[in-house]
Design goal:
Elements: H1 2-26, H2 48-51, H3 54-71, H4 82-100, H5 103-106, H6 111-131, H7 135-140, H8 144-155, H9 158-167, H10 170-185, H11 187-195, H12 197-219, H13 230-239, H14 241-252, H15 274-311
């Protein structure tokens, strides 16, 4: 029994470490110049993979591991259905759009586009990928030498189990998820990230990693089993709504400009004022961010119902109460009198 638990802890730790590593790797070199749309290009032609293919390579690598793992899994202990596969590939596409499409250079010109990008990186992409139950397929898709020399050592490592316990503590994941949001929305760090390549990479990398850690506790992708009961997960999601609302509303109703970095580059569309752009960005942070939490709470409640049905597929039907005199309280039909 101890050996089985150790293997599970190690596999989960590997998944957490892999998510953190992927978060950092996906953003290595993403902000190649941070000068917005390059001269001579338009928003329709400024695709990031042309100048910096690194994120695309990592996303393709994740797809390869996932597909290869599914193909090398002849007798799955838990099947990955078509809906889950669609979620995984949709999540990959969301991250590709956020990091490699014209959204990336446009985010240097418009605060509102930057908020769309952050929503995709920290909430939508990680949520969809974890809904695809990627842990087992991606582990099975790894080369044999990697599973033997890396996975097996992590499985047997007490340090890996300790790290997993700390990184996936619900208090830690919630505080980290919200703290990074507030830190990177503060005017100083946000403007610095727009100006500085390395800080910009750090911003996206930490957001992506915190997103995976946050949703890892909520979504419970097999064979992972979250330590939180489903009711607590709904509460867990509710905890992030109020801070997100306060931050988004504070930016939306701000009378003056908060961020100065967006005024330093010429804009493809000059009719959109800086203040309107800032307010629209705050609205994107506020409303879609809250809606994502509410939608995820609905998903968790559906998962809760499914788990209860699996545990008790044929619940007993309620029986009418019988009085002490044997009367069940139901009047006989008048035609039988």
């Amino acid at each position: 029994m101890t050996g089985i638990l150790s293997r599970r802890w190690g596999v989960w730790a590997l998944g957490t470490v892999a998510a953190a590593t992927a978060g950092a790797a996906l953003n290595f070199g993403i902000a190649s110049a941070h000068q917005g749309i390059p001269p001579g290009q338009t928003p329709a032609t400024a695709w990031g993979f042309v100048t910096n293919p690194v994120p695309s390579l990592f996303l393709l690598g994740a797809v390869y591991l996932y597909v290869n793992g599914l193909n090398n899994w002849p007798n799955p202990t838990h099947r990955v259905n078509a809906w889950q596969k669609a979620c995984f590939f949709s999540g990959i596409l969301v991250l590709f759009a956020a990091l490699q499409s014209p959204i990336e250079p446009l985010a240097e010109h418009y605060f509102s586009v930057h908020q769309v990008q952050h929503l995709m990186v920290r909430m939508v992409g990680p949520l969809l990928i974890l809904l695809g139950a990627p842990l087992t397929p991606m582990l099975r898709g790894m080369p044999t030498w990697a599973r033997r020399n890396i996975v097996r050592r992590l499985v047997r490592s007490p340090l890996a189990r300790w790290a997993y316990g700390k990184l996936t503590n619900p208090v830690f994941t919630t505080v980290t998820f919200l703290a990074l949001l507030f830190i990177w929305q503060a005017p100083g760090p946000h403007d610095l990230a727009v100006h500085n390549d390395w800080v910009h990479e750090l911003m996206h990398g930490t957001m992506l990693t915190s997103g995976f850690l946050f949703w890892w506790i909520v979504i419970d992708p097999k064979p992972h089993r979250s330590r939180l009961h489903y009711g607590l997960r709904v509460l867990y999601l509710g905890l992030i709504v109020l801070p997100n609302t306060l931050l988004g509303a504070g930016i939306t109703f701000q009378e003056g400009l908060i961020y100065s970095a967006y005024q330093e580059l010429p804009r493809p569309w000059e009719g959109f004022s800086y203040l309107s752009d800032q307010r629209f960005g705050g609205l994107i942070l506020w409303v879609p961010g809250d809606m994502m939490s509410i939608l995820a709470a609905g998903i968790v409640m559906f998962m809760w119902y499914q788990r209860e049905m699996e545990a008790n597929p044929n619940p007993p039907m309620p029986q009418p109460a019988i009085d002490a005199d044997g009367d069940d309280g139901v009047e006989p039909d008048q035609t039988e009198r």
